Amino acid sequence: MNSKLSKYQKSNIVQKMNTDDKYDIINELLSALNKNLKATLINLDKQKTEKAKDTAKKAQNIALALQNCLDVKNGGEIAQNLNYCYRHIRFATQNYLEKDKSNLLTSAHFVSGELLSGWKGMNTSVA
After folding, report:
1. 126 band by pLDDT with thresholds 50, 70 and 90
2. How far is residue 117's CA from residue 94's CA, in Å, rounded to a whole number?
3. Summary mean pLDDT of the chain
4. What is the CA radius of gyration of the chain?
5. In the chain, what is the straight-line distance between the N-terminal and C-terminal CA atoms, in Å?
6. Are 69 and 119 in contact, with CB atoms under 8 Å apart?
7. How many CA atoms lie within 13 Å of 64's alpha carbon, on the beta-carbon side?
8. What is the rounded distance in angstroms from the CA atom of residue 48 to the CA atom of residue 25?
9. What is the pTM of this model?
10. Domain ranges of the chain
11. Hey, CA dihedral for 25, 28, 34, 39, is it positive or negative?
12. What pLDDT shows up at residue 127?
């Protein structure tokens, strides 16, 4: 357990949390979401079910964290659309974790890639 804590404390996300740049934190979360969904698909292709389920669970947790950060009250249409995207990703991963149905994981990975790409574009235009 201590090795996991040590690894977490050294991680890029923890270091970013200590900065004032909230854009970097969201970028790290979106990158990790995309990376974990990609790893899930790769592990499925290699028939490594346990690893696929592990990375799917990580992706699901990240999507939930991102969804919980949304300001749906004041965020308008953008927050509502992001909420739908995160719900889709969570549904796809849950469908795989509970029912071994992986048919939605490819679209979840695509959605996460589009979100990451859009965030990077927005982040550079704001900076």
Report:
1. low
2. 24
3. 88
4. 15
5. 39
6. no
7. 11
8. 30
9. 0.81
10. 38-119
11. negative
12. 47
